[in-house]
Predict the structure.
Amino acid sequence: MRIPAVLCFFISFLVIFERYLPLGMIPGHLYGGVVSLLASLFAILLCRLIFARKESWDPGFTSTYIGTDVFLGLFAAIFILGTGFLILLVTDQLEITGYGIDPRILIIGLIQYLLVALSEEILCRGYLLYNLMRITNRYAALVITSLIFSILHFFNPDFTFFSFFSIFLAGILLGISYIYTRSLWFSVSLHLFWNYIQGPILGFPVSGSKGSESFLNLHIYEKNIFTGGDFGFEGSLYCILLILVVIPCLACYY
């Protein structure tokens, strides 16, 4: 059975529900990541029961290049966030005012962001992109899911035009390997380390949400399009430019 177009809207509604209700009510708690993952799996189960009960589905965790994909995801996150951080530091747009954190918070943060990465990637790339690629070409499917991914962040705190465009490009970045390999390992790895490095390590807000503690304590002199403002670095012009550098490199590799 061909997947009907209404499936996209149905999944989008469920994504909004699981994305904002659980995590919005309990920010910074490990429980939020657990609820998010369970809600994503429930959304997929519900969609399969209604629209595609008899169809097979591969979530995207079968790959012979798991280690390579995980490493590339980590490297891409370090390159984009590390380069952006250094640019802001050497141009005196921020300063480090302190450092240090309870190791337990770093561990909990890593687990939390892993759960969030699994939740969003299984749903947005592993299921929605997977099904859209069955009814349209891979590039159109990637653009559509990236737009949906960005729209889902619309109600995040301090969302701006730059945030929208940056997260749309991040959706392209997260899905670029999947459209060629049907593997989620790169997507999950990049998503995990993107959030983890940006928040608990560097101390930026993550998609508008500021954590209670981070390894680095930052003072940002001016909240503008270069620093990303209260939304975080991923809402900055520098982030957009760096993502635009990485996307064609990954497209050539995969």
